[in-house]
Amino acid sequence: MTEIPKEEMLLKCPSTCAGCGSLLALRYILKAAGKDTILVIPACCNSVIQGVYPYMLHTVPVYNIAFAAAAACASGMSEALRAKGEKTNVIVYAGDGGTADIGIQALSGALERGEDFLYICYDNEAYGNTGMQRSGATPLGAITTTTPNGKTVNKKDLDRIVEAHNLPYQATACSSYPADIYNKVKKALSIPGPKFIHILAPCPPGWRIPSEKTVEIGKMAVKSGIWVLWEKEYDKFTVSAPSRAAMKRPAPVGDYLKAQGRFRKVDEKTAAVIQANVDKNLKRIALEAAQSEETE
């Protein structure tokens, strides 16, 4: 943690819920990006918690944009800055609803065109800003206001959708591992072209967990293998250190589910399906990492 700058890029007293995972992630994203940065934020929790001018949370410029248009906005902004010879970082910071659902068309188009910006999806696995309705990123079995008995289908595999665009850099992260976030953002911003980082951001009110448990729950997600930390730089796929250690002996997924009130209606059958899905994904990731090592 010693390499992370002490200077804070976010001001005190944000209007977030206590224990907000997305704000914790943003703190280290901006430490990595620095002052020469513009944030593009569509409708989401972070478009509200930033405050009202002139009493703003951020110390960098922020462009609020319509739900579906974040990637399109960042595309035009990046093109204009590059045409002027400026290297200002353009970063989209969007929730899972504005990424996996409402904003996916603009995101796909920008990635296909090769636009030069970093898109970061903070994933609290629901539409948190409007009361925790289910999104495509909501996991199987999770209770939301629109799935009161638990979601009956699996979480959308956003990372494999993005991976199909063959980006120069793509990664996953979790707000419980700030040094990992910092390093991945620094690397992403050093590479030209489109970049994508998918960050798991536990949400205490939405996940029905105590606000002081945000970091612990995020680490449980990684240690159980339900969330794997990795990065892919061009064709080189690498599993990050916390997940490499976890994959040797993953913690039971059931412990992760029981720690959250949103999974309280998950029965044994559904829990077994979730565990099987995790086991299958871990095998796929281990194989991809091994194949990447063989081709080096």
UniProtKB/TrEMBL annotation:
Statement: the UniProt record of this protein carries the keyword Oxidoreductase: yes
Keyword check for Lipid metabolism: no
A GO molecular-function descriptor: thiamine pyrophosphate binding
EC number: 1.2.7.7
Cited Pfam families: TPP_enzyme_C
Residues annotated as domain Thiamine pyrophosphate enzyme TPP-binding: 65-199
Superkingdom of origin: Archaea
Keywords assigned: Oxidoreductase
CDD domains reported for this sequence: TPP_PFOR_porB_like
Transmembrane segments annotated in the record for this chain: none
One GO BP annotation of this record: sulfur compound biosynthetic process
Binding partners and assembly: Heterotetramer of one alpha, one beta, one delta and one gamma chain.
Listed name of the protein: 2-ketoisovalerate ferredoxin oxidoreductase
